[in-house]
Amino acid sequence: MFGGMHASVWDAADPAAAPRLMEFVSADGQEPQLDARAKGLIAWAANQNIGEISTDGERVAFVATPIPSTTGAHHVLAVAAGERGALKLPREQLRTWLPRLARRLATLRSLLDAQAAVTQSERHADLLLLTATQLQDHRTIGDLGASLCTAASHMMGTRRVALVRWNPSRPAGEVAYSIRGHPVVAGSVVTPESQVGAACIGDYPVLIEDATDRGRGFVVFGGEEEQHPLGALAIVPLRGGDGIIGALVMENELPITISPTDAKNLRLLGVMAAHALETVWEIEEINRRARTDALTGLANRQQFEERLTRIVMETNRFGGSCTLVVVDIDRFKHVNDTYGHQVGDEVLKRVATALQGEIRNVDLCARYGGEEMALLLPQTDLSGGCQLAERLRTAVGGRPFVIGGRDIRVTISLGLATYPEGARDRDELFSAADRALYVAKREGRDRVVAGGL
Q1: What whole-number distance in Å separates Cα of residue 321 and Cα of residue 380?
Q2: Over 90: is that where the pLDDT of 127 sits?
Q3: CB-based burial of residue 205 (10 Å sphere; 0-12 exposed, 13-18 middle, 19+ buried)?
Q4: 453/441 Cα distance (integer angstroms)
Q5: How far is the C-alpha of 314 from the C-alpha of 308, rounded, in Å?
Q6: How confident is the model over 309-335, as pLDDT tens digits?
Q7: CB atoms within 10 A of CB 402
Q8: pLDDT at residue 412 tops 90
Q9: Domains and CATH numbers, the chain
Q10: 384-406 pLDDT, tens digit each
Q11: Helix, strand, coil % (nearest 5) of the chain?
Q12: Buried b (16+ CB within 10 A) or exposed e, 44-81
């Protein structure tokens, strides 16, 4: 049955599968190979929780006995003689001796597991303390997300960790940060019907040790989420002062064991994360409001000036061209005088929405002042700028705005210039675009004029 003398421990957790060798000691150093009869005896010993002895005539050739377990594991101690040898102990002594050895192995395994658990618990405690200390110093979502996701990754032993920001009033969310290599990137949408969305709405944690049999409708984040292997999933909602503000999401490609201690540590990490995130997101919101026009939601003049300087510097560094478009609402004073300032404010908002809807994510649309707006177009030459400006003019003037049951026709004039072809620096760029806008107004409004040196 075996070559040489072997004592080995087998895992027979799945009755339908062959026992899996965990560890062995042998006289010849060769890993034991089971035949069908030996596999059957090990499976029987594990599932019936009784010892089995196989004989070859008077010779005892193979003995298997279950190892006691408090965790439900199906481990079996097997001792086998060589093909021409025999185990020296008589059958009755084997029936007494082997279960006793199995009990001692179980005790030793429990001690080793306890030692490993204590060591892991100490590592997790040190990790939580270190993370708590680091969180006090982070003031951006990038730094904070990296610290939290790294801590969760070490704690759970997985490289797929993401931080979600949740908006309970919508309800919806987005991935605020994910570890590099994660198939779901920052900015991805989190929908309410997803696993993360449901956990945030219901305010409950999700701990799935084996998610391999989940159906196609099982979506972790939602939206246009890319399908990827999923073996285990843990979601820890983050509770702020006014409700759930986000979640830590941990995935693993293979099933894992999540102990009560792991679950407790994840909850502690979630509590620490919620306090830190609430502070950072409040700071970001204050900064956003300071850089945003309250009426239109566009960038304000301060943000425009900062971005203009940066885009010109990036153009100098990387080459190419950048274009500035200055926009003015035609006869806006007449709108205010005829329909009132409330309608005038609504016109401003409608124009802002139309402009914002035509530009790329890398472009910036700002309210420069009054009824004047400006667009910054990085890596865009004069021809591309003129094409966009015409689309903007059509988007606003193509159909009247319906406000308060009245059709109000609004047109815009646009002037643009390009750097470095049409200006020597940022100030000249704005002056050139502004002069072009003046020409457009003078020549009859509702038109696009390009300017420059």
Answers
A1: 6
A2: no
A3: middle
A4: 20
A5: 10
A6: 999 999 999 999 999 999 999 999 999
A7: 10
A8: yes
A9: 6-108 (3.30.450.40), 136-290 (3.30.450.40), 301-450 (3.30.70.270)
A10: 999 999 999 999 999 999 998 89
A11: 40, 25, 35
A12: bbbeeeebbbbeeeeebbbbbbbbbeeeeebbbbbbbb
H/E element holding 77?
A: strand 75-80
Contacts of 214 by beta carbon, 8 Å cutoff, 6+ apart: 230
Compute the distance between CA of residue 155 and CA of residue 8 in angstroms, rounded to an integer: 32
**Residue 295 identity (one-letter amino acid):** L
CA–CA gap between residue 46 and residue 74 (Å, rounded) = 5
Could you tell me the strand order of the sheet in which 75-80 lies? 20-26, 6-11, 75-80, 59-66, 52-56
Tokens of residue 29, six digits? 């150093």
pLDDT score at 32: 66
CB of 234 closer than 8 Å to CB of 250: yes
Task: Output the CA–CA distances (angstroms, integers) from residue 391 to 329, 359, 365, 366, 385, in the order listed.
Answer: 15, 10, 15, 17, 10
**What does each C-alpha distance from 10 to 16, 51, 75 come to in angstroms?**
15, 14, 6
- H or E element at residue 273: helix 260-290
Nearest to 312 by CA among 385, 379, 383: 379
The position carrying tokens 């201690």 is 261
Measure the N-to-C terminal CA separation of the chain; round to a whole number of Å. Answer: 94
Q: What DSSP line would sit under 368-423, residue for residue?
A: EETTEEEEEETT--HHHHHHHHHHHHHHHHSS-EEETTEEE---EEEEEEEETTS-
Q: Are 388 and 327 in contact (CB under 8 A)?
A: no
What b/e readout covers 293-327, taking b as 16+ CB neighbours within 10 angstroms? beebebbbeebbeebbeebbeebeeeeebbbbbbb
Rg for the chain (alpha carbons), in Å?
Answer: 35
Of residues 341 and 215, the one with the higher pLDDT is 341
